[in-house]
Structures are given as C-alpha cells and as structure tokens.
Write a structure and sequence with these properties.
- The structure holds two protein chains of two kinds.
- Chain A has four helices and two strands; from the N terminus they run H-E-H-H-H-E.
- In chain A, strands 1-2 form a two-stranded antiparallel ribbon.
- Chain A is globular and about 30 Å long.
- About 10% of the residues of chain A have low confidence.
- Chain B is an alpha/beta fold.
- A five-stranded parallel beta sheet of chain B has the order 5-2-1-9-21. A five-stranded parallel beta sheet of chain B has the order 11-18-12-13-14.
- Chain B is globular, with a radius of gyration of 23 Å.
- Classes of the chains: A alpha+beta, B alpha/beta.
- Chains A and B meet through helix 2 of A and strand 24 and helix 10 of B.
Chain lengths: ~120, ~450
C-alpha cells in the first residue's frame, strides 16, 4: 500500500505537450493490441491508481476499470505500442451497457466490442 | 475417471500458455511444469526494460503464486536431465522420476556460447534470463567500459543496458551498417543515429578475436584488426540455439530444433514441442523454420496444449496451428520498431555468415525471395516505413517511429490481400505511401 502511495506521488506522468497526455476527442479508453503485448508490466508499474493494465492487455480488451483516471501514463510508457487511446467500449460481453446511455459524456462514442 | 498427467518442461511463454489451455479443457488433469530458473513465470522480453531500470524485478513476474494455485499447476524447480520415451518418464537432476501421459518440451533457446578465447572469464555476459539481466546490471555498474558483439535486437538491448548502467559501451558490427540482412541503408542509418545519440560507440567492420583477462576477469578485447579495447565487461549476442540437450540422443526427428507437425507433435507419440525449441512448417518458405518470437511461442503453446488433451482422450487432434506472419516489435534506443512478414533484402547475406538466429527474430524475415518483389518506402525524420510487395500482395513491412500503420499492415499481410490495384500509387515515389496504404486498408476493411 505504501509503495503504491509512493508510486502515486512519484510516477512520472505524461510529458507536458505530449499528444497522449489526454485522450484525443472521441477517444475515451485505453485500448490494447494483445499481439503486441509481452507482459512486461511497465503499464502496471506506472499506473498511479494501480490498475492491472497488463491483464486487460493480455486479453486485448479496453481498460474499463472504473478507477482509470485517463492520465495516459500507461499509453506513454508502453515500450511496444500495445496501448493506445481508442473509442470507448461500454458494452459488456453479455451485451449489457456498462453505464446508462444518458450518462455518457458526449465525447464517448458507442461502439461494438467486435471491432477488428 | 482416469486422471491424466500432463508434463511441461519449460516455464516460459509457450509452456505456460499450453498449461492454461490444458486446464481450461481438462479440469481434473494433473499439470506439472518443470523450470530450471528460480522464478515464477516472468516476461522474458521485459528484461530489456529491467536493465534500463524502467521496471523493478517483482513487476516482471507476470504470473505469480496465485496463478499457479488457481490453475492448480504444480511448479517444480529443477532440471530435467533425461526422457525415457518407452516408459514415459522424465528424470530430474535430483534423480526423481516423473511419469507422464503427454509431454511438452518448451525448453526455449539459449545464447550461443561465445567461440572466442577467454569466453569463460568473469565479466563475459549473455542475455537470456532474468539472472543474466542481473549480471548485466552488476557488470554495467562496475565496469568503466564494455564491449558488445552481435547484430540483432539482443545485442542492441545489451548495449543499451550496459550503457545505461554507466559503462562506456562499444558495439562491434561485422558489417558496415546495422543489421544489414533486415534493414536497408536508411533504416540502419536511423538506428545508428539513435545509438550514437545514446553515447555508444559503433565500430563497423570489426570482429572480436580474443577476450583478454587479468586474474580471471575481463580486462579488454583484441579485435581481428589488431586493435585492443580496454573494458571490464563483454556482452555476447551472436544468436541463439534451441535447447535440445534432452532429445539429442533420442530417436526424435530434429534439425536445428525439434521438427513438429501442425499439431505440434514430434515424431514420437506423446511428445510435443512448442516455442523457440520447435521447428514449425511455414507456408511462406515451404520449409520447417525456427522462430524466436514471443507471439509465436504463445500460439504454438496453445496448439500444443489442445493436442495434448486430444491425445490423452484418444481423439484426433483438432486444433491446427496456422503460423502467422512472423512479427515483432521493439523499443530500441527510444525508437519504436515493428517488423512484419518477409522483409529481407537478401543482399547482406554474405555479411552475416553465422547461421544462428538472434533472439526476437525469424528465419522468414530474411529468407531470400524466389519470386520477384519490389519495395517502396517513405521516410520523414525518425519515421520510416518500408513495404515489400510480391505478386501484387503485401508480404512484409518495417516500421520505425510512427506505428500507426503497424496494425493495418499486419492484417493486410496476414490476409494476403490483393493490392495490385494500388501498385501504381504505392510505387509512385511522391511521398504519399502512408496515405495510399491507409486508403487501401480502409477500402479492404470496409468490404468486410
């Protein structure tokens, strides 16, 4: 816990002026290309809130953890370009919406999970 | 109900993905993994970032105790020394025999031992395992200067690591540019610029003749040209060789690796191989080839796991391993790099005579073409994009810097999409290559 707290304060965030610092318009979630990932764990290490980004990346899923603060640290640090900003997937595998449609910020587009 | 015993030798990407598949399909079976390293499963490619202090050791362990417990995988720390195919037994170095119903060899590949005199000195480094990475860090901190020999990704990772740890690093290249079999001249120049920018000296057309020692420790190197360089550490990355010690004297069909069919079966019933140690048929060259790649290892492991379950159940294997275009990406000296499919220009073949494959590469990349091919490329600053076309189809690509097209290109190559309609604009030399490729990708993608 202490280590995580330390990490929170010391984690080097995205560089100022970097285009990855905030999600581009219409891009609401961190997406992962599983074939590029080799599970080094740099994403987890740099995540200020301690999300197991690596597990999402292994399955090639969007980082849908509600604790994600969209800081972009994992996107910035990923050495193999596995993690990118992408359109949010707000539909669970059982086809239920993660949140109600009227709660969606206008920056988020609904998109089917089965995008290639 | 019979409880089957699946035995896996090797705790890397291939071995573990096989174990995962087996557990998915057979809840009751016993799964044992033998490893000769004192760690749980860790990310082998990740050690390149470990030596750069980008990640601590405990984060590299991607599958810890909980995973083995939850999947009921028995992890045995030991070294398998003998396989008895008749009795279906594996013997450990402790003498303990382990009976199995299906055996997977996922022993991987290790660095070719340096052929130079003085290779046994303290301070000579290879780069295979987490323990090697720890040695690299220790040596890099202690050494004033270090010399790295080799031309592949591993050599560059070693040089980057030693340099980062504070040693003045020299990189020896046998040819006159970086990785001549894979890169063209512009690409080599981009990588070389990054290396020099890091403060590493590159010596072209230089070969190591001898490692000089003093009281059992590395004190310098003598080059073929007669020059000597004072150094306290020597990194060797001249290629890897599959770990075949267990099967060398057994009647198992083998070449450079263990020859397997598309179900990852070796020539002996009950014996499977996957990962770096397996030599798999590939549809591009029509031969059995070695890959030392992470994604291939995972896919081969999954195929092997499925076939093992089918075998013990007495079923015909159903999961055919279709080899994908060999693909790798890396971050070298801050430069993103992706290599897909067949990109070798064949011209540098005479430069690199050693037949060993370097880690993180594939024979397919550099195998010479039988048909005509053309390549087009685009370069802007640190970004470079090169595609190789053959018969109207995209067969390979090298991307440096900007990786936006990496995923579209990989899919186009994998699906062998006919792009002959775009060929005039692809080869038009007007600097529009990325745009044309993007258009081709969108057109194809929409048709789906």
């Amino acid at each position: 816990m202490l280590a995580r707290l330390f990490n929170f304060f010391s984690a080097k965030g995205p560089k100022p002026g970097s285009d990855r610092a905030t999600p581009p318009p219409g891009m609401g979630q961190v997406t992962a290309d599983a074939s590029r990932c080799m599970q080094c764990g740099i994403c987890v290490y740099n995540c200020p809130v301690g999300i197991e980004v690596r597990e999402y990346s292994r399955r090639g899923e969007n980082v849908t953890d509600s604790r994600c603060i969209s800081c972009g640290a994992c996107v910035e640090k990923c050495p193999r370009g596995t993690l990118k900003w992408g359109p949010a997937v707000l539909v669970r595998p059982d086809d239920m919406l993660e949140i109600a449609p009227h709660e969606l910020p206008h920056t988020l587009r609904l998109q089917s999970r089965k995008m290639p | 109900m019979t409880v089957y015993h699946y035995l896996i030798i090797g705790n890397g990407a291939a071995g573990l993905s096989a174990a995962e598949i087996i557990r998915q399909r057979d809840q009751a079976g016993r799964i044992t993994i033998i490893t000769n390293e004192p760690y749980y499963h860790y990310s082998r490619p990740g050690i390149a970032y470990y030596v750069l202090d980008q990640i601590p050791e405990r984060q590299l362990i991607s599958r810890g105790h909980a995973f083995y417990r939850d999947h009921r995988l028995e992890l045995l720390f030991g070294k398998a020394v003998e396989i008895d195919l008749e009795a279906r037994l594996v013997r450990l170095d402790s003498g303990q025999p382990i009976a199995y119903d299906a055996l997977l060899l996922a022993t991987g590949a290790s660095a070719v031992q340096p052929p130079f005199p003085g290779a046994d000195l303290d301070g000579v480094l290879t780069f295979d395992t987490l323990d090697d990475a720890k040695r690299v860090i220790r040596a890099g901190r202690r050494a004033k200067a270090a010399v790295v020999v080799g031309g592949g990704i591993t050599a560059m990772e070693l040089a980057e690591g030693l340099n980062h740890q504070g040693a003045q690093t020299h990189l020896l290249q046998r040819g006159e540019r970086i990785w001549p079999r894979l890169f063209d001249e512009q690409e080599s120049a981009i990588v070389a610029r990054q290396i020099v920018h890091e403060g590493i000296h590159i010596h072209y057309r230089e070969e190591l003749a001898e490692i000089l020692g003093k009281r059992g420790r590395v004190a310098g190197v003598r080059l073929e040209s007669g020059r000597t360089i004072k150094c306290q550490a020597v990194g060797i990355a001249i290629g890897v060789r599959p770990n075949l010690d267990l099967v060398r004297d057994l009647p198992v069909r083998q070449d450079k690796g263990i020859l397997v069919d598309q179900f990852m079966r070796s020539s002996q019933p009950g014996l499977f191989a996957a990962g770096d140690v397996a030599q798999v048929y590939d549809r591009w060259t029509g031969q059995h080839n070695l890959d030392v790649l992470w994604p291939s290892a995972i896919n081969e492991g999954r195929a092997a796991g499925n076939s093992m379950v089918d075998l013990v159940r007495g079923q015909e294997p159903a999961y055919r391993y279709q080899k994908e275009s060999p693909f790798n990406c890396a971050l070298l000296f801050g430069l993103h790099l992706t290599v897909i499919g067949r990109v070798g220009n064949g011209s540098g073949a005479d430069v690199e005579q050693l037949a060993y494959l370097s880690r993180g590469s594939s024979h397919v990349w550099t195998s010479p073409f039988t048909s005509n091919y053309r390549s087009a490329w685009d370069k802007q600053g640190f970004n470079s994009l090169r595609i190789v076309m053959s018969g109207g189809r995209l067969v390979g690509a090298v991307l440096m810097g900007n990786q936006e097209l990496a995923d579209p290109l990989r899919r186009l190559i994998e699906a062998e999409v006919d792009l002959s309609g775009y060929e005039p604009s692809l080869f038009s030399d007007d600097g529009q290559l990325p745009q044309v490729l993007l258009r081709a990708w969108r057109d194809w993608h929409q048709r789906w």
